[in-house]
Amino acid sequence: MRNCTTEETAPITSPTIATVARRSRRSAAMLLLAMIVATPAIAQDAQKASAERIVDCEATVQSHKRGLCANQLSADDFREIAPGVSWWYNWHYSPSDLPPQGVNVEFVPMVWGGDAERLGGLKSYLAAGHKPRAVLALNEPNLKGQAFITPKESADAYKRIKAVADQHKLRTIGPHMALGSSTGDSIKAFDPIEKKDVTYTFMVPFLKAFLHHMGKVDVEATAFHSYGHLGEMRWAIGMMHDEFKRPMWITEYAQWSTPNSAAALTYLVQSTDLLERSQHVEAYAWFKERVGDNQSISLFRKGSGELTALGEAYVAMPVHDADLYYRLPGRLQAERYVTMDKMEIAPTTDADGFLEMATTATGATINYNVHVTTAGDYRVRLRVGDTTGKISIGKNGESLADVTADGSGWRDVETTVQLPQGSQTLQLQLEKQGQTLNWIEFTQR
Questions:
Q1: What would the pLDDT profile of 26-50 be if each residue is shown by its tens digit?
Q2: Residues 235, 205: contact at Cβ < 8 Å?
Q3: Helix/strand/coil for 435
Q4: Are 255 and 233 spatial neighbours (Cβ–Cβ below 8 Å)?
Q5: Among 291, 295, 330, which Cα is nearest to 309's?
Q6: CA distance 374 to 422
Q7: Which residues pair with 381 in a beta bridge?
Q8: 3-state secondary structure (DSSP) of residue 333
Q9: Measured between alpha carbons, how far is 258 from 267 in angstroms, rounded to an integer?
Q10: Residues 208, 193: contact at Cβ < 8 Å?
Q11: What is the pLDDT of residues 226-276, one digit of tens each?
Q12: DSSP string, 154-194
């Protein structure tokens, strides 16, 4: 921490009573069999439909993953973040602030260090009936000025915290590691794997020693903090998955040093989108609501409820959940994809809109979950950038239509597709590297 979802029967012709009875029994049996066979399929379809979330194209969707590190939040602050942010924590076992009634943002407690006072505080908080999604354990035990305890001490503290969380059937997440640290700021201890004294300047050897000391006690997820560039975040997510094969929480992140506000916005957009779509990332939290000595990464201005440009972007960032469908007709922003390949997100250079998607290689694809209200022919308008190339629209491996951008700057291109009623996934395939897409508009003809 830096401070601070007909039956058919033969016609009956003058039958005897016995024949009618036999046929009635047979028909009833066939009907019952048909019901038995059909019921699982009907139940599965109903379950699938109930799991879907269908929203308007322009709706802001709250992310279950997205959180915020915050020392102090006012009622107005909570109202501003709630459309996109679902949880927050304050490095403490209980909240100093609470969202106003009707504002759904969840507090997640943390036991910052290994001391008895904080553990006692967690016990009292949970005993009062609070049911958070998880308990966070140990803040940067490898970094001087933070919890700063050895892997063995961290394991002992984690077991005590987990024992309390287990009593309330809650998950324990942690320890929350500083990715790396200078030699002078790093914890030193005898390493049970290396069999020698080690200065833990990198989180991985510390975590391996910690897990060794945990023995057979389960550690459900890893957690770390990142303050470097986007490449560092990409690398860290992949590396942590390869090393530990556990889901992860990124409970502090920001690019601490950015040259200007445009670079800060681009980092927030690209890193948040990466975390939101990464299947190995369960949750993440931006650092933080207000940063006194680094306003360039703050989500709020000094005034209550006044979001910065970064804050507005953080709340508005899209969600990529597989159960989320956008209702058509409507204008769907390009960034509201469900999956994509060979594409990246960035603030748009178009005259209007928030973000754009651009291809990073030939043959890029991007998929959209849509819910068609009424079956029929739809005019599809795409807002495309200045790279010449074909865009193919398809579904279930079948091509529906093609359009071509002619490279004359941001402009609209259009075609017509036939869509059935209901929920479905459309795929766009873009021919060339450098093609950009701002939005897709569906209008029923």
A1: 444 443 434 434 455 445 455 555 6
A2: no
A3: coil
A4: no
A5: 295
A6: 8
A7: 414, 441
A8: strand
A9: 9
A10: yes
A11: 999 999 999 999 999 999 999 999 999 999 999 999 999 999 999 999 999
A12: HHHHHHHHHHHHHHTT-EEE--EEESB--GGGB-EEEETTT
Q: What is the mean pLDDT of the chain?
A: 90
Tokens encoding 195: 């069999």
| Helix H or strand E segment including 414 | strand 411-419
Tell me whether residue 212 is exposed, middle or buried, using C-beta atoms within 10 angstroms of its C-beta: 0 to 12, 13 to 18, 19 or more. Answer: middle
Token pair belonging to 8: 């058919």
Instruction: Return left, alpha or beta for 328; rule: phi > 0 is left, psi -120 to 50 is alpha, else beta.
Output: beta
> What pLDDT sits at residue 50?
60
Tokens of 399: 């091509």
Enter the tokens of residue 334.
């390009």
Q: What letter would DSSP give residue 11?
A: P
The two tokens of residue 282 are 């369960």
Instruction: Supply the Cα-derived Rg of the chain in whole angstroms.
Output: 27
Confidence of residue 102 (pLDDT cuts 50, 70, 90): very high
For residues 337 and 364, give the distance between their C-alpha atoms in angstroms, rounded to a whole number: 13
Distances 406 to 137, 304, 415 between C-alpha atoms, Å: 55, 47, 15
Helix (H, G, I), strand (E, B) or coil at 64: strand
Half-sphere exposure of 151 (CA within 13 A, CB side): 26
Residue ranges of the alpha helices (H) in 52-201? Answer: 75-81, 116-127, 151-167
Question: 70, exposed or middle or buried, with CB in 10 Å at 0-12, 13-18, 19+?
Answer: buried
**Local structure of 87: helix, strand or coil:** strand
> Which residues, in sequence order, are CB contacts of 433 under 8 Å at separation 6+?
359, 360, 361, 362, 364, 387
Distance CA 280, CA 358 (A): 24
54 and 325 in contact (C-beta within 8 Å)?
yes
242-256 pLDDT per residue, tens: 999 999 999 999 999
Q: Which residues pair with 160 in a beta bridge?
A: none
Structure tokens given for 22: 């036999």
Name the phi and psi angles at 310, rounded to 5: -65, -40
Q: How many Cα neighbours within 13 Å face the side chain of 116?
A: 0
**If we measure between CA atoms, which residue out of 160, 140, 309, 315 comes closest to residue 226?**
140
